[in-house]
Structures are given as C-alpha cells and as structure tokens.
Amino acid sequence: MLMLSKKEWFGNPKNDILAGIVVSLALIPEAIAFSIIAGVDPKVGLYASFCIAVVCAFTGGRPAMISAATGATALLMVTLVKDHGVDYLFPMTMLVGIIQLIFGLLRLGTLMRFVARPILHGFVNALGILLFLSQVHELIRERGTLLARAAESGHMAPAIWISPLFVIVGLIIIYGLPRIPKVGRIIPSPLVCIIVLTAVCAYLQPGILTVADKGKLPDSLPHFLWFNVPLNFETLMIILKPAILVSIVGLLESMMTATVVDEYTHTPSDKNRECRGLGLANIVSSLFGGMAGCAMIGQTSVNLASGGRTRLSTLIGGVGVLILSVFLKGVVGQIPLAALAAVMTMVAIGTFRWRSFKELFTLPKTTNITMVATVVVVVSTNNLVYGVVTGILLNVFFFTYRFSRLLSVDVQDVEEGVRKFNVKGQLFFGSALKFNAAFDSLTDVRLAIIDMSQVRLWDHCAVVTLDRIRAELQRTGTTVELRGLSPENEVMISKYSELRQQEEGPDGEEGEKLTTA
C-alpha cells in the first residue's frame, strides 16, 4: 500500500508539477465564468475549485483527474440563488456532498459498468465538439465586448483578427514545440504557449481581453464560514431538489470522466472511492465559502496532455488556483483569454476520437446509432447528462431486441396426437410474443410436451405467458406437460404461483398446477 501511495503521488514529479501549473492557469477564468453563471461572486467559484481539487487529490479514486467548480453544476444553482439568495447555496453544497458520500458508501459507483462503450465514445466525441464550439463562442463574445467598449469610449476597437491570430500562434507553439529535439519536452507546450502569448500581449498591448476582464480576483484566502440560514425543515425543502440534481449530475460527470482517464492511461480507478471523495470535497467547499463541483473532463484532458499522471498534479492544480488568484493576481490578470482558448482547442482536438469516422463503416449499426445519438443529444442540448441517458436508453432497447431473438421453438410430432416443443434461449417480456406464436392454431393435439431444459425464465411476464399458453391449451382439451425445468425456473414459477392463481380464478380446472415430468 505504501508503494502504491508513492506511485500515485510521486511517480512523475516534474511533469505533474508543470501540468498542475497549466491546469491552475486554465481553471481560474473558468471558475470565474461559472461563478457568474451561478449568480455569485467570482471568489465562490475560485474557493470551490481550490477546496474540491485539493480534497479530491487526497480522497478521490482517480489519480490525475481534476475536479473543481463546473458549468454543469453551476447551471443547476441559478434558480436557488436567484429565488433564495447565496446564503442557501452553501448548505445546499453540503447536502450535495452528503448525498454523494452516501452514494459512495452504498457502493453505487459500480453502476458505471452499465454504461456501454458506444455511450462513452459518444460522450467523449460530444465533449470534444462542445469544447471547440465553446472557444469559437468565446472569440465571438470577445469581439462583441470589445466593440461595445469601443462604442462607449469613442476609440477604435482592436482588429478582429488579433485574438484568432493569438489562438493560431498558440496552437503552433503547442504542437510545434514537442517536435524540437531535446528541449521540446522539457516544459509542457501548453505552459510555454501561455507564457509566450502573455509576454507578447503585455509588450504589444493589443487591447484584447485578458483574465482580469472575466471578473475580480479575490483579495484574501478562504476561511471557515458557518451558514447564515437556519438549519430546519423549511431550509431542507428549499435546498433538497437542487441538491439531488447537482449530486446526480456531479457523480455522473465524475464517473464518466474517470472512465475516460482509465482508457487514456490504461489504469483502473475506484469509482466508489471517487463518489466518497467528491462528497467530502463538496462538504469542505461548503464550509469555506465555495459552491458544489465535480470532475472536469476538459481540465482533466489539459492535465493529461501536459504530462500529469498522479495525484500530485491534482494537488498542484488546486493549490495553484489559490496562489495565482490571490498572491499573483496582477500577473495572472494579464493572461490573454486567446492563450487559454488555444490550450482548450488543443484539448478539444485531442479529446475527439477521430477513428470514430472509420468505425462508422466497421462496427454494428446499433453501436453506431447509440454513439451518434449520444453526440447529437449532447451537442444540441449542451447537456452531457441528457446525452448519456439517451445513450443508455438506446443501448437497453437494442440489447433487449437482440436478447429476444435468442429464443427459438423447435416443434416435433412424436406420435399421432402428441407434439413436442423444444424451447431454447431466453424467455422474458421481449420474447414472450414470439414464444406465444409457436402455440397458435394448435389442433388435433391431445398432449403438448414443452421441453424447458434449454430455456431460462427471466421475469414475471415469462411465467404469465407460460401459464396462459397452458390454460388456453387445456381449454381446447390438450394436456400440457413441462419437462426439464431447472431449479432456477422452478423457483421463478413457484414465486409467482399465487399471482397466477389470482389471475386464473380459484375455481375450475384452470387453477390446477402445471404438469411436469
């Protein structure tokens, strides 16, 4: 365990420290933006990013994963803050943490195994598209802001091509630097991109937007704060619904992000520990004036692309947010948003699974439909959860359809008036109609032998279908004999025997039990 701990923390120190710095620089403007979305002071998002990242570094189940304040959770807080005020945000955040902690203690993180690979690939592809579109929208929004400022001041707005040019130069640095022999990989290229473009921006003063334009950075360190609202039933009713929504969205995004990192690094993660760790992180955040958060696939991708692999990178990322935003805010405030846009564009390009285009012609249609539907729903709604749920529902439908086709009924005439039905496969609600059709138009048969030795009954519908067939045949004077019932099938039949009797009625021969042999 000690060796595992050392490997999780200090297996890659230089790259982890540098990657953590890149992450912290990218986290600051996003934390400010998410605070604005939620309708709170920017320091709420910054304090949350610090607390959540640091706590998850120690308690989370996935090394190198970045958790902080996110847009997905911030959107769910808007109504609460607007209707009841920011004071209710902090107890809501604590309740989110408690719910997530309970999820982890109940080991519900194992439910992630039901998220199929096409859904995961659709999630990743949609995320890459959303990250790219978000940077395009950011550049468009920046242009609008600069034009508005120019109109107010009467000065000429900066040339429209300056910010896109910065992004292009940044991408050249990011992709070109690693190709330089020996020196190209000493420092992560995204960090070099930010440093170079910040220096150029400070020297040329092109008038483009910087981190300082996103919002005011905090003047002090976070400190312990207790809630300013009464902890009673009325408060619980106010915060319960948003807390449940935020906790579910946060857990789903964190589990999906952990799975993506598992694939990228070819190492496993502990999903239940991640649930518990995120819950503890949100509880701590609520006590230091922060809002709820979860894993950030974008910043996690930045960390991985910059060389981060252990918990140290997560810790540096969280601590870096606090140090940079409080003690070095004068320097951080000069970072052009175009430099961060270049980094996020690199992440978007690296996140998208480009081989998905080839797989459209090689993988089964149902797999491709699930993947494409997940992408379309996520991109059209800008909500990762909707896309994942859509993918899961489609996958369940396709699985049920394929599972139902496994059932077959082979009919043999043993002798005159005796017919044998050899049933193979799975009998459940999806295959019940197919099973029932095998016994249609059965005439001149005095004995029907149903061989159940190679079939499995899965649900109540299977038992009811079997009983109704038996009842219908008996009404026409045919005796039904079941053979080869497995212990599991016998348990299933006996479990629902009382319900069958209620459906068939207490009187008459229809209430008799199945004849078995």
TrEMBL record:
Domain STAS: 416-491
GO cellular component: membrane
Membrane topology: Multi-pass membrane protein
Protein keywords: Membrane, Transmembrane, Transmembrane helix
Stretch list, region Disordered: 496-517
Residue ranges crossing the lipid bilayer per the database entry: 43-60, 88-106, 118-136, 156-177, 189-211, 231-252, 278-298, 310-328, 335-352, 372-398
Entry-linked InterPro entries: Membrane-Transporter-like, SLC26A/SulP_dom, STAS_dom, STAS_dom_sf
Keyword Metal-binding on entry: no
Cell compartment(s), UniProt: Membrane
Protein name: Sulfate permease and related transporters
Species whose genome carries this gene: Zymobacter palmae
